[in-house]
Write a structure and sequence with these properties.
single chain, mainly beta, eight-stranded antiparallel β-barrel, elongated
Length: about 210
């Protein structure tokens, strides 16, 4: 007797199996901010802001499917004077990178939910959408007239992987505070995982 494999039937059976148990959903919000001042005269700066949100669906007690989205802006400003040639000095340059990231992965709790302090790890695939912009200001050494210009915006898209370690402190049965360290790097380029680590704080809500 020939048995035919029916995909819709399998989906229905899986849906019934998961609906038989009470799924737990968790919403998380995170924010990070970093500012560095550098240069001999402390005229240069690097400012980074990042916002992220995610929703996790716990299919099992400690394991969840994790969907996340983030938006960040990194601004590097250099205000030191350099010889640009042709009788001009470069007196200011600002580079801006705006990044939107969409990711999906697996989140694993490392301790049962009954404990107030819960470490977690999350790994998965992400796609980055990047916008690059550069503005410069030149000054004529003779006339002292300044001219500004912009490179316009260039775009890029990068297939990536992410990994995160999260430490979550439960305040109530539903509300938790958390801190996390997250890396984002081009897919399968494992040697770059430690080059882009960001730290953030946030909250999560279970329902």
């Amino acid at each position: 007797m020939k048995i035919q494999f029916k995909f819709p039937i399998v989906i229905a059976l899986l849906s019934t199996a998961f609906s038989a148990q009470a799924l737990i959903y968790e919403i998380g919000l995170d924010f990070s901010y970093d500012k560095q001042i550098y240069g001999a005269n402390r005229l240069n700066s690097n400012v980074s802001r990042s916002y992220s949100a995610g929703i996790s669906t716990y299919l099992f007690e400690l394991t969840a499917i994790d969907f996340n989205v983030s938006s960040s802006k990194d601004t590097t400003t250099q205000n030191e004077r350099y010889d640009a040639g042709g009788g001009y000095d470069l007196v200011s340059q600002q580079n801006r990178i705006e990044t939107d990231v969409y990711g999906i992965g697996i989140k694993q709790m490392l301790m049962p939910r009954k404990y107030r302090l819960s470490p977690m790890i999350s790994v998965g695939y992400a796609r980055q959408f990047l916008n690059y912009t550069t503005d410069i200001t030149l000054e004529n050494r003779t006339t002292k007239v300044r001219t500004s210009g912009s490179s316009g915006t260039s775009k890029d898209r990068v297939d990536s992987m992410f990994g995160a370690f999260i430490l979550q402190y439960r305040v109530t049965d539903r509300l938790s505070f958390k801190g996390s360290a997250k890396t984002l790097f081009p897919a399968v380029e494992w040697n770059k995982a430690r080059d882009n680590i960001k730290y953030s704080v946030g909250i999560s809500w279970i329902f």
